[in-house]
Amino acid sequence: MNSSSSSFSSTVATATSSILSTPPVILSPCAACKILRRRCVEKCVLAPYFPPTEPLKFTIAHRVFGASNIIKMLQELPEEQRADAVNSMVYEANARIRDPVYGCAGAICQLQKQISELQAEFAKAHAEIMNLKCQNSNLLALVCMEVSENSSSSSLLSSDHINDYGNNTSMFLEDNSVYAAWEPLWT
Ligand SMILES: [Zn+2]
């Protein structure tokens, strides 16, 4: 079992390495180096995440965090987490520019307020439903009581009706006609 799983992971590894062997297209100079007016070196840590096609991404993150802090944070992270970290920093910087006092905490508070308002609305609607269900079952009980009172007075009549159907001979006649229709097939 161990060998099969390791061979599986090795095939996955070779597959991914073959994909990764074609280097990702990194346009040079990157947006960060262009804005910082410095030479974009081959192994620029910012280049994969700040392409020159999206200069605003770096401008916003740089304004709030500062280029040196962004570089420091990226260098401290493993490569597979860097793209997420950049997205998070850009999001936080955007929120901070929109709301200089609370930043993204302001958005979180707003959403929490919305949640509690909706929860209160939901509780109210739920109480209304329970109330209506209660009314409905009360009405149903009333209707049932009235029906049983009415049917007990006319129960004799309805049982006669059922006996009438049971003794009806026309059903047997119909059955015979059906057999007659089938007969030619069997001779
Ligand atoms: Zn660069």
From TrEMBL:
Could you tell me which InterPro entries the record lists for this protein? LOB (IPR004883)
PROSITE patterns (UniProt xref): LOB (PS50891)
- Annotated LOB domain ranges read 28-129
Single Gene Ontology BP term?
Answer: regulation of DNA-templated transcription
One GO molecular function term of this record is: DNA-binding transcription activator activity
* Annotated GO CC locations: nucleus
The record's similarity note reads: Belongs to the LOB domain-containing protein family.
Full protein name? LOB domain-containing protein 11
